């Protein structure tokens, strides 16, 4: 008779996935969801009680069970128990700065083509939400260097990332280096080269020269910016630099749906806007991408425009019918 556990063994620790299989263990985080959808994340500790507004619940009643069950508190409150997914963890973890939401982290991983073994640099690390997705994508054989200029945010990120990947005390994901400092100054000083540079900060254009010098030919810069003025300034700075392909900008909108019999309609709640994403690829040294001959939209670079401006943006003068 097979002695293998019905759900298989645990995920190999050397995969650094941040995921466990099998019975819940002491020291693990679980997520309890009540009938109204309220969520509580708790760290399982033998002998401890979780207090709810509907009585208590012993952690010992959870430890040793397979996740995906319902537990009842002493006053009859019902809670669904699962291990948190990465997408759930990042929106409930303690925050310093605003986080990259899972819908955007997924876009960044896909469209900036983050691959296992990649050398990636990001700034700023903020609360470490995007860091978790990037580490998942590069894996233990990749390299992720995260710059953060505010020490208090770096501390929050370190705790969050360490909690998610479950590293032993004093250790962290083997691909990760967290560096305190400004990417625009520290990255050139490091002399390191990267495949991908991800910028999530107020002024990513200030980091573009450092990014261009650090990127290998064919590498990708990806910026995540919240406002249209940031988007414009970053795009024009990329064009003006000349060592990148024409930048692409987009945003993603995700809408949930209510589906019940014939009542099928969009959900009432939607995150209308998070941020815009921009990507561009690094040309080889000395190479410039063919100019995109484009006629600027009327007024695009008119007297009110004060930002950077690539010369080719005006090489076809505006004409009227
Ligand atoms: C919006 S937060 C980043 C959130 C993070 N990506 C996450 O998902 O949790 C922006 C962070 O960038 C940092 N920052 C801004 N400019 C920077 C720079 N040039 N170098 C390093 N960090 C920078 C800020 O201190 C702030 O913590």
Automatic annotation (TrEMBL):
Xref: Pfam families: GCD14 (PF08704), TrmI-like_N (PF14801)
Q: What is its EC number?
A: 2.1.1.220
Q: Which UniProt keywords apply?
A: Methyltransferase, S-adenosyl-L-methionine, Transferase, tRNA processing
Do you know which SUPFAM superfamilies this protein is assigned to? Answer: S-adenosyl-L-methionine-dependent methyltransferases
Single annotated GO MF: tRNA (adenine(58)-N1)-methyltransferase activity
Catalyses which reaction(s) = adenosine(58) in tRNA + S-adenosyl-L-methionine = N(1)-methyladenosine(58) in tRNA + S-adenosyl-L-homocysteine + H(+)
Q: Which Gene Ontology terms describe the biological processes this protein takes part in?
A: tRNA methylation
Key word Hydrolase present in the record? no
Region span, Disordered: 287-321
This entry carries the following GO cellular component terms, namely:
tRNA (m1A) methyltransferase complex
Quaternary structure note: Homotetramer composed of a dimer of dimers.
Name it.
tRNA (adenine(58)-N(1))-methyltransferase TrmI
What is the organism of origin for this protein?
Answer: Nocardioides szechwanensis
């Amino acid at each position: 008779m097979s002695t293998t556990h019905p759900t298989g063994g645990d995920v190999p620790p050397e995969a650094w996935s941040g995921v466990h299989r099998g019975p819940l263990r002491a020291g693990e985080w679980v997520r309890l969801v009540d009938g109204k959808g309220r969520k509580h994340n708790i760290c399982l500790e033998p002998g401890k009680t979780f207090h709810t507004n509907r009585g208590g619940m012993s952690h010992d009643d959870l430890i040793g069970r397979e996740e995906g069950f319902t537990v009842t508190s002493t006053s009859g409150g019902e809670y669904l128990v699962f291990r948190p997914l990465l997408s759930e963890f990042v929106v409930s973890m303690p925050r310093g700065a605003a986080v990259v939401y899972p819908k955007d982290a997924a876009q960044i991983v896909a469209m900036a083509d983050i691959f296992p073994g990649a050398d990636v640099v990001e700034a700023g690390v903020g609360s470490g939400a995007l860091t978790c997705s990037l580490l998942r994508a590069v894996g233990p054989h990749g390299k992720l260097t995260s710059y953060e200029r505010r020490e208090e945010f770096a501390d929050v990120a370190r705790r969050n990332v360490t909690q998610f990947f479950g590293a032993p005390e004093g250790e962290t994901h083997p691909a990760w280096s967290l560096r305190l400092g400004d990417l625009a100054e520290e990255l050139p000083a490091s002399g390191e080269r990267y495949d991908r540079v991800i910028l999530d900060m107020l002024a990513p254009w200030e980091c573009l020269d450092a990014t261009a010098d650090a990127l290998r030919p064919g590498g990708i810069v990806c910026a995540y910016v919240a406002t249209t003025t940031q988007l414009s300034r970053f795009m024009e700075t990329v064009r003006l630099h000349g060592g990148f392909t024409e930048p692409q900008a987009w945003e993603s909108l995700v809408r949930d749906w209510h589906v019940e019999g014939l009542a099928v309609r969009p959900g009432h709640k939607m995150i209308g806007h998070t941020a815009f994403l921009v990507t561009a690829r690094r040309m080889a040294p000395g190479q410039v991408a063919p100019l995109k001959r484009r006629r600027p939209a009327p007024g695009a670079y008119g007297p009110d425009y004060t930002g950077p401006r690539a010369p080719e943006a005006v090489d076809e003068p505006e004409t009227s019918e």
